[in-house]
Write a structure and sequence with these properties.
The protein is 33% helix and 17% strand. It is α/β, with parallel strands linked by helices. The structure holds 1,3,4-trihydroxy-5-OXO-cyclohexanecarboxylic acid.
Amino acid sequence: MGKSNRHKILVIHGPNLNMLGKREPEVYGNNTLENINNEISSKGSDLNLEVETFQSNHEGAIVEKLQNAMEKVSGLIINPAAFTHTSVAIRDAVLLLNIPIIEVHLSNIYKRESFRHKSMLSDIVTGQIAGLGVIGYILALEAISSMVKK
Ligand code: DQA
């Protein structure tokens, strides 16, 4: 497949993930979001995928990004961060997309405070990866790649 007709994959990072590197490194590691996005992009080129990464601290901005992805994107990787546990709006926007969707968390949310055990997305996504740090995004991209190329 040539460059212009590669599958497009959207990667969304939710609130406070722009602070990675400075934020609770004992939980989230030392990587910055820029490092993580670079790793995602280089894996994307290896897999011949067109990858767009997007971060926002605003629920409405994430909802609009998901709405705009309709009919344009072949796969979604999303770490909604704190909105994972609260956002019906993001859940409803994710439901607009009929594509493979992987929910990623850097930390193992089930090992942490009980309010993090509930995900508003876990029952509507294709799969979830939690607790593997940056590798989670790379594995998610591999999984999405094999799904969209089938
Ligand atoms: C997180 C887990 C969430 O509970 C938390 O609010 C985050 C990050 C993770 O990647 O482990 O901001 O989604």
